[in-house]
Amino acid sequence: MLPAELVNPTVRRGPFRAVLFDFDGTLSLIREGWPTVMVGMMVERLRAMDLLRRPESDDWAAIDRLVMAKNGAPTIKQMDVFAEEVARRGGPPVDPWECLRDYIDRLMAEVRGRWTALESGAAAAADWVVPNAHAILANLKGRGVPLFVASGTEYDHVSTEARLLGVERFFPTGINAPRDNDPSFGKGKVIDRILKDLGIRGEELLGFGDGVVETGEVKRVGGVAVGVASCPAGTPHGTVQPEKRARLIAAGADLIVPDYSRQDGVIRWLWGEV
Predict the structure, then answer these.
(1) In the structure, what pLDDT confidence band is assigned to residue 237 with cuts at 50, 70 and 90?
(2) How many angstroms separate the Cα of 30 from the Cα of each of 56, 126, 245?
(3) What is the pTM of this model?
(4) CA proximity to 65, closest of 230, 214, 212, 255
C-alpha cells in the first residue's frame, strides 16, 4: 500500500534517473513563516496608501493568493505582482526592488536568529528540516540517483542554510538559485538543463516540492511531481497542511506527502518495488 495520498492513479512509476528538490518548505523549515511576513508587509503598504478597499481579512486573503501563485519563483517576481496590484487599485508606482529589500530585512530579522542557533549548536539540523529529510536524501543517494536542488531564494542564503542543515553534501553539482535575486532565474531552466546534461527524458525526472512553480515545471516536461504539504517545525509528523495540499493538487501534483516520515515506503512504491 502506498504511504501517501495518490492524486493521479495513472502516475508513472520509476525507476527515475534524476530527482529534483525544492528547498524552502520541501527540505528546509528555516524560513517558515515567510508568507505571513511577505503578505503582512504588502497589506501594511496598501494600508499606508489607503488602498484597502474591503475588510482587511479579505485583502489578506487576496494578497496571499497572489503571493502563493508565485511560490517557487524568484522572490522579486512576487514583488512585481504586488506592484501590478497596487497599480490596478489606482495607487502610485511601486518599486519592486525596494519592496524586496523591505521584505528581506523583515524576514531575516527572524531567520538570522535561527542561523545563530544552528551555528552554536543550540538547535540541531533535524529541528529545522522537513521531518526525515536527511533520510530520503540518503535513500536516493544510495540508489545512485543524481540529486538536484533548486530554490527561488537568494543563492547566498540557500547555500548558507543548506550547509547549516547538513544537506549540501547531497547535491554535488551545487545550489541552483538566483544570484542577486536575478529575475531571469527559473526552475524550468534548471529542469531543462538537467534533462539535457544527463540525456534523459522528462518522464524519468522525479520532483519534490511544496510550491506551485516547481510542481508545474516538473509536470511540464512529463515528470512525476510529489507535492510536499509540509507544516511548521514542531508539528506532529504526518500532518498535512490543507491549504498547501489544495494548491499542490491544483498545480498537478501526482502524490501528496506531509513530510518524509514514511519516505522508504514512498520511494519503494515510486520505484515499482511494492
Answers:
(1) confident
(2) 28, 11, 20
(3) 0.90
(4) 212
